[in-house]
Design goal:
Length: 53
């Protein structure tokens, strides 16, 4: 599909999800970064209560 056709369909509110390959989609600058953080024990216990209910 050409860009002009895609744009016209998008502007017309059509569902274009079938025309897109989302398997490799990503948000630039939003890649996760793993970090290590040390928290006091009381904070970890407090967070555990919040997470588990």
């Amino acid at each position: 599909m050409r860009a002009k056709e895609f744009e016209a369909k998008f502007d017309g509110g059509e569902d274009l999800s079938r025309a897109l390959d989302l398997s490799k989609a990503r948000r630039p600058g939003q890649e996760p970064k793993r970090i290590n953080v040390d928290f006091p024990e009381w904070m970890v216990k407090s967070l555990g209560g919040e997470i588990n209910g």
